[in-house]
Amino acid sequence: MVKFKALLDGWKQKAGPVKTESPYTVRLPVADAARLHALAEMFPGRTAEDIITDLLHVALDEIAESMPYERGPKVISQDDHGDPVFEDVGLTPRFIELSRKHKKVLQPK
After folding, report:
1. How far apart are CA 48 and CA 41, in angstroms?
2. Residue 65 — φ and ψ, nearest 5°?
3. Under a CB-based contact definition with an 8 Å cutoff, are residues 48 and 65 in contact?
4. DSSP letters along 77-94, please?
5. Residue ranges of the alpha helices (H) in 1-109?
């Protein structure tokens, strides 16, 4: 389940994280744009762009959490009971690796 309650609470009080230097342009379906503007009106301290940024952040977190673990052949450690822990050969390791790579490039200097 997406954690929108925390997002709504955050919109009431705090500023967001550091942003990239380059903007991203998207075209929204009319119904989604209407809901976006409704949220911006409900939370006057937040622009539509702030809300898009926050919603995308929550969605990306949810995608990362939803990537299934796929057991690989290599044992990488042992758990608290001494049982083997196998490497993850699913989407998660690649997603993390690529995210780190792109973050280095995108990080404001």
Report:
1. 9
2. -70, -25
3. no
4. EE-TTS-EEEEE-SHHHH
5. 4-11, 30-42, 48-66, 91-106
Nearest to 43 by CA among 80, 84, 1, 12: 12
**Nearest one of 61, 60, 36 to 49, comparing CA atoms:** 36
Is 39 within 8 Å of 49 (Cβ atoms)?
no
Does this model's pTM top 0.85? My answer is no
- Residue by residue, pLDDT tens for the chain (109 residues) are 557 777 777 766 666 667 788 888 999 999 999 999 999 999 988 899 989 998 998 899 989 988 889 999 999 999 999 999 999 999 999 999 999 999 999 887 7
Would you say 102 and 80 are in contact if contact means Cβ atoms under 8 Å apart?
no
